[in-house]
């Protein structure tokens, strides 16, 4: 779980959690009796897709126009089977506009289909959030670590397993990348969203 102190008074006000299939939950804490109220805020599960989520949510605070918003950033990747080539993994940023109040009781969870597809850069906006395909998702690229946000950009590492997986006494190494993408729209800090890490294998 990722805990958030909205009022910056040293007390946790809410928390986010994601299960392995991609359901994101928000838990609000009543500050008088600390009775938690949990609710699903997003459902990233897509039928027929074999995506897995092992990393905690990265929560970043910004403004959508003049309205404060939490960005819930997370990438998919089958950490238990890093050599898997079939999942076609993605990176997501879901927007939670209910920063200073609990989710409405009639809130409908945000679906993956509600998010803007930024796999190809475009100028269209979406108040629900965005996602994009990893640059080598067709080669088994996956996110195996938690994202972090600094200066309006989301940073995370990914791993591409070797394509020719043969039996060997030495471990397969593969290639890792560092991504830097704009928090608001998923565009790259540079022309490409990623740079290659010189060391081989899964990035620490």
Could you explain how this protein is built, in words?
- The protein is mostly beta strands.
- The chain is 0% helix and 39% strand.
- It contains no helices and 15 strands.
- The strands form 3 sheets. A 5-stranded mixed beta sheet has the order 1-2-3-4-8, with no helix packed on it. Strands 5-6-7-10-9 form a 5-stranded mixed beta sheet, with no helix packed on it. Strands 11, 12, 13, 14 and 15 form a 5-stranded antiparallel beta sheet that branches.
- Strand 2 and strand 3 form a beta hairpin.
- The mean pLDDT is 90.
Map the helices and strands:
Layout: E1 2-4, E2 14-18, E3 23-29, E4 36-43, E5 58-64, E6 67-75, E7 90-96, E8 110-111, E9 116-117, E10 129-133, E11 142-143, E12 148-150, E13 153-160, E14 175-182, E15 194-196
Parallel strand pairs: 4-8, 9-10
Antiparallel strand pairs: 1-2, 2-3, 3-4, 5-6, 6-7, 7-10, 11-13, 12-13, 13-14, 14-15
Q: Notable features of this structure?
A:
15 strands; five-stranded mixed β-sheet; mainly beta; globular
Helical percentage: under 10%
Shape: globular
Number of strands: 15
Largest sheet, in brief, is: 5 strands, mixed
The arrangement of helices and strands along the chain is: EEEEEEEEEEEEEEE
